Model the fold of this input.
Amino acid sequence: MTKEQLFAQIQRKQSFLCVGLDSDIKKIPEHLLESDDPLYAFNKAIVDATAPYCVAYKPNVAFYESMGVQGWLAFEKTVAYIHQRYPQQFIIADAKRGDIGNTSEMYARAFFDEMKVDGVTVVPYMGEDSVKPFLLHPERWVILLVLTSNQGSHDFQLTEDREGERLFEKVLRRSLQWASADQMMYVVGATQGKLLEDVRKIVPGHFLLVPGVGAQGGSLEEVCRYGMNSQCGLLVNSSRSIIYAETGEDFASAAASEAKKLQVEMKSMLERYLR
Amino acid sequence: MTKEQLFAQIQRKQSFLCVGLDSDIKKIPEHLLESDDPLYAFNKAIVDATAPYCVAYKPNVAFYESMGVQGWLAFEKTVAYIHQRYPQQFIIADAKRGDIGNTSEMYARAFFDEMKVDGVTVVPYMGEDSVKPFLLHPERWVILLVLTSNQGSHDFQLTEDREGERLFEKVLRRSLQWASADQMMYVVGATQGKLLEDVRKIVPGHFLLVPGVGAQGGSLEEVCRYGMNSQCGLLVNSSRSIIYAETGEDFASAAASEAKKLQVEMKSMLERYLR
Done:
């Protein structure tokens, strides 16, 4: 999917919501545990319920990996289901990978060729040659960690070098030499508030994947005020507050309500901040 | 496995070799492709051939993940085989994981509870709360990326802050507050030469996992000169130069010869530098 196609979806749906499929066998409704593949059954219901209100899905790979082979099967089936039923949805494997060149090549093969996701989150710690193999796949996206939503993001990402450049700024500037806004997005946590403005100074035109609205406490209004650009440029993710909105039999309709609530807010944000 | 048990193995075998199982379906001997599970058949033969000469195995998770479910099965079977037949071997999942707290917990569960490896490599970019969940598992190890073996390691890891502290040094110092040498090791590339000395100034007593000897060009002698401590403190990994020493039917005996060659060198390094 291209940047323009993604923006067209955002306009059509008046939403830039990404639903995070952090599907945990310990948290899904009990009655699903009787199904052959509970995680897949859960995801399928969540996707069917939320698809009208979002433009992207982000399965969090850890949650599937922790279930071993059964989890991987649920992951693959979920991706295949979304592609088949909702081909306009952008699918992100939240995997946070990154390794020496020959190994990153294997990861790129795993996610893009085997699992056929549109984008994968990548960690910059190991530098250019750990990221580049992911860029060899046309029309697939690298979504680089820059400024994460967690408390530990302050441990290293804000460190200033001798010239006062912070590590997250250095990552942004360096990465501009690796790929354009047509192939790279950045992860910037909703909890980072005004720092989003500093991100936008370096990458005004890129899409940002913004986690941390909802359970983690980030503000949607703040994200839009500091982060929205003329093509929206935002995919705002919410996971737990949507998929675990209710834990009973009506979990899917509760998820739809939560997603719709966010979509309505997003519509008004687009009216206000799209410029 | 404790630090003392690992050192006891090193003394007994006069080796601190870790064999990297970067097993790639495109590189393993052709005759194995007829087997039900070619990657597992390959690993089994490599493990049986090299076990006398090493103290650890490090399957590189990317290579299995790139094969989808079939790859995960091969990974799990390989780990189970090593545990059962060679219970004294230390098993490292080279996964380079790290995410927000609830997700790192899932990864820890995946590798320690599901796959039962002894240690997992973890990326520090997201800071303390992304690493800590891995430390909640007693007698399991976090092996933190500090100074990697690839060229891109220079992009960010050597950045100096205002006080002249480099990022890899900051990671080392911070991480000392998270866990002791009984639960944490560090990845330091063999290609970093004299920088190993700077690592040892901060973490004199920890084990280091050192990739990059062999195909990547690092020198074993240099690693030992700058990195060995009184309990050896080194696990030196070699992957491709051992497992792909020969690509014909005698691949396993060729791997054994390469591993043995390294073990003999390591024995003389222990005689020279263990202090």
In short: The first strand of chain B starts at residue 17 and ends at 21. Chain B touches chain A through 59 residues (CB under 8 Å). Residues 35 and 41 of chain B are 7 Å apart (CA to CA).
